[in-house]
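Fold this sequence, please.
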Amino acid sequence: MSNTPAQFKPPLEQDEFISGITDKPEDQVEVGILFVGAGPASLASAIRLAQLLSEEPEIMDSLGEIPIAIIEKGKYPGAHLVSGAVVNPISFRTLFPDLKDADFPFLGTVEKDAVYFLTKKNALRLPTPPTMHNKGNFVGSISQMAKWLGEKAEEAGVMIFNEMAGMKLLVENGAVRGVRTDDKGLDKDNKPLGNFQPGSDILARVTVLGEGTTGHLSIALIDHFNLKRDNPQVYALGVKEIWEVPNPLDRVIHTMGWPLRGSKKYSEFGGSFIYPMGLEKICIGLVVGLDYTDATLSVHDLLQELKTHPMVKGLLEGGKRLEDGWGAKTIPEGGFYAVPNPLHVPGAVLIGDSAGFVNVPSLKGIHYAMLSGILAAETIFSALKEKKDLLNSDSLSGYDEAIKKSFIWNDLYRVRNMRQAFQNGFIPGLILAGLMTVTGGLFPGGRFKAHRDSEKEMFLGNKRSYPKSDGEYIFDKLSSVYASGNRSRENQPDHIRIHKDVPEVIAETWINMCPAQVYEWNEEDGRKLLRTDPSNCVQCGAITSKGGRLTPPEGGSGPEYS
């Protein structure tokens, strides 16, 4: 048997996360339009829908007592969104045409860019590729953006239900009817505690899935309805830290090269980013594609190693990591050919990262997510106005048409093969990416095939000598989990699905990959087996990409990013 994580798929029953309506009518919760996830995509979509409905009170009244609802598994909008991003403001301006840029939740304008190729000791300044020009964009905290958008949504009459996870899609007669939420108050063995509360069936005219990367219900929907992709979705794992520093940073910095290795053998694709967040703070992070092959690779520890570079150390010198200044999250990197087709099914649509709307070469996704939500809202409103049966197969097809006419489609098409170009190593990828940039994606043309991250053959390389934690500049995983604000209940059911009796190379892959030290060896009856500590989990989603499956823990669990 090969050492590919895909060989060890976790135990899942067919359609385990799909259900018919189970509650009695008196126990069902009915809403008009239901959004899953309170990220930028869903919040922008809910706000746009509320704007449209405010002009058509009869349609608003037809949607019942709760016309627009959002369920969010975190404690508040933004709780599970990792801070620090460079944002194209176009979707904010589209959604709020009467506001000025100064009114938006940004931390400053990007004035300068710098791109470096790193070796262990040196930094070579490179010309900034056109895809990475950021002048005129804004730096901000994604968590703070979601908080701001959440407040705007509630002002518009949107109901946000925090600490409520979507566990199952409700599907009847080939159409999505809503979502079953999580049970609360179960112990590790799934037995009710004294404070047990069963989940509820939330029924809706349309369900909008904006869960973000590796979305639990989005994956269930794509599988159940057999939505086509030309290429499978692939992911990267990003780990970030927020630092308070004495010297302001006057530019956005990206790096490539060290500490990643460039040969095809390792398949290590990625780079770092260093953003100013106001005058006193810096966000530093490292993103690595999860199609790597060396089981000893740890993105968290590579970020610590990056901080030992003389250039990076000079930027952070005299500063300190904030007490709430760490986070980790996956990013969809499959691009144009990994977008599901269609993006709608009877009664539901996919938006934002759940659909894979991320431009990898430009490192942008927020404005795509928000625009996709806006277009979904306008499609739903048009269907309501035309009194369409929203459970019919083509009632929401206008959403796909709107996406294909938007800058989302055009932008992703132009860079459709750039991520895949690096499958053969850094130098060949750089040459191909340059040709694709110059020709707008026309050359070499065609479609570069891709493989799931879990289908890559893993090997045990020589253990890398990552720097040891000193608690001041270099940090271990457990102290970082604490800095994420993670306060998960320890005796809740295990929400991570993996096989625990796996070859050493697979186990080491998961142990090293996880930025939150969820996986570790345990000896039982003389055998080494994996054990999990799910209360450490920050729900980054990496395990879903690399052979396991992350399901939602009890609503309200996980990090509390700010």
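The longest helix spans residues 366-385. The radius of gyration is 23 Å.
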